[in-house]
């Protein structure tokens, strides 16, 4: 049979759209105060299993930065029944992974296991969450490992840039230090601090469990109710603290000197909005066309028009508190000043005029069209359910997501750009050879040069 | 054109049906239907990579990959991504030693868009090439090299290890991204010549995975790709590739480089059986015995118990001609490279002397299988695997047999392999140390 001829001169028209819906899920709050989200997703013999507590790093006390992630990483280092290596070997027998950790918003015990071993996996998750023993030996071992990791970060240009930027934006708030903490704070964290953080912030009451995979959701919820039982009368841990970074005075520039560096790590940023802010969705649309996708304004400008960089992007980080808005790129040192000015120019331009009609149309159709692609795996679906729980979004959030996207207007984008992007009160960080960078960045705003602190040499 | 349906795959990966066809111009087509999501992955492999380059002209295959996103006769500069993104498509490409791939996953009703874009740059690239886009992409790639190699702590080590492991004329000697001066020297005529030599349907495999009817999809593929003429036969690569001469004298097997870092890092590398050979699977299982997870042999001893290492990793690269086996470990503060190297070598000697403990072997095998299943969740990964098995082995059914290949290996094969690959005269050693200030 002869293949039909094609017209190469224009994009071919689409076929018939197939509809897509977010997978159905069950949500139930159990007697002990645990809320369960469970979704059946067949296809692979794996199940994603996750406990989410309120033990995020936003609760790190001043001077004890890193305490939440320290505690999180210690939960699976010893329980009433098993030591660290026994737990690790146990997980491996279940044919997958299971570990504990923390990020800004939450503490986690999270895993993906072979479906046939799910019952044992749930037992182990309960054991880790309810009976951690925080052995001294493991505390010292993890401390020493984290101390070496901090040293590595201090000599890694991208980490240096990230850490300097958040310090510039969030000094004096929990967001001002890396999740790992600082060299100074790490040394002060004792077992008592870990135990009291655990007792205060890791309550099962008020926590969330997300299970996605080849499961029967009803049966799964019953199993969880039998296995994961909060101590009687346990109160939920405290909710998020108010984090209010002081606005920057103007454009502030920090150059971190790396003499002889082959390139410069560039960052621009300021505090953004809470994930729960109703502006977050239009802001995400705005960011997508500003610096979120390959064909965004910032990437096309810095990479495709000027060749300054291999790639530039921007994002609003979704957190319970006002997470950062930031732009990042690794740029050739000689074009750092020009690249920073181009980014500032793009941030000013996005506040001045409505975006082009074609731009918003392309962006919205991208975000709507790419949606099923982002929901292929059990882990991706589990992450979306976790977002509902952590940010208090309604159960029908994902059913309405594409309609809400489609309803976004250019006027809305201009409005949120003016409210939430401020190129006149922004921090600029450049990590590279200061002698080359300072002359290029002078005149944009007050500039501080940071040499490598003596203790990391 | 008719489709040849696959035999039902035995074993653990039965839900990977595929059909295959070859167009008269030589394009091999694999169709893997899966209607569970309204998506289609379009995945195109060209059997050309950095191994097809010459010394002094390195980095070309990769720079060329960048040029393939700069438009073609019917697609304006920058419009490749624009067309795909505005329908919700996700796209990229990558270059490796043996191959270059281009891929997009898009809503399945836009299948024709993906086929239009891929066929336009396969058949109609030359009219769109300009000096201006080449100049910009050369800058972009030089910045990519700075970001991933020159400005990256320990970033030069992989390059240096390959230089030590393979002699100067060997096609794995130079880095995929190329040396800076070679990237800077690339001309428009080089780009044209490269296209004429390697970018033809007879040197490519196209896989579609996702929500489509195979007969209908094949008709569409024929419409878009059928009239692209085949190219000349592909120039052979050096016969050295699969069987390089033995490693040099002891002095050539060791090196120390200084870098802007604080913790010394030790690298050991050796040559191993090529991807697809039984010994390669033994090598992958051995890497899982030695590293990966707290109870693995090296992690448990060096990181957990003795705490002389911050991290340790072992892997075997899936190269087509000959594989590279690599061990990397970063020292804890206060530990020097020699101490760490000695500890690594003691473990390698033990791995060569006796088969792994049953529990370690089983753990490694379980891990491989879980990773395999986990990776198969994504359509784009599945499409990439079908293209890979067809490009390297002309055997798309190999994807479904991948789990069996691991299951067939006996524990004693791991120690035999360790003895063959990791003997003192079979390995190279590189230490990265803090630059003296």
Textual characterization of the structure:
The complex is a heterodimer of chains A (457) and B (437). Chain A has 457 residues and is an alpha+beta fold. Chain A is 41% helix and 17% strand. Chain A has a 6-stranded mixed sheet with strand order 1-2-6-3-5-4, with helices on both faces. Chain A has a 6-stranded mixed sheet with strand order 9-10-8-11-7-12, with helices on both faces. In chain A, a hairpin with a 5-residue loop joins strand 1 and strand 2. In chain A, helix 1 packs across helix 7 and helix 10 runs antiparallel to helix 11. The model of chain A has no long low-confidence stretch (mean pLDDT 95). Chain B has 437 residues and is of the alpha+beta class. Chain B is 41% helix and 18% strand. Chain B has a 7-stranded mixed sheet, sandwiched between helices. In chain B, strand 5 and strand 6 form a beta hairpin. In chain B, helix 11 packs across helix 15. The N and C termini of chain B lie far apart (68 Å). In chain B, 55% of the residues are buried. About 2% of the residues of chain B have low confidence. Chains A and B meet through helix 2, helix 4, helix 10 and helix 12 of A and helix 2, strand 6, helix 3, helix 4 and helix 8 of B.
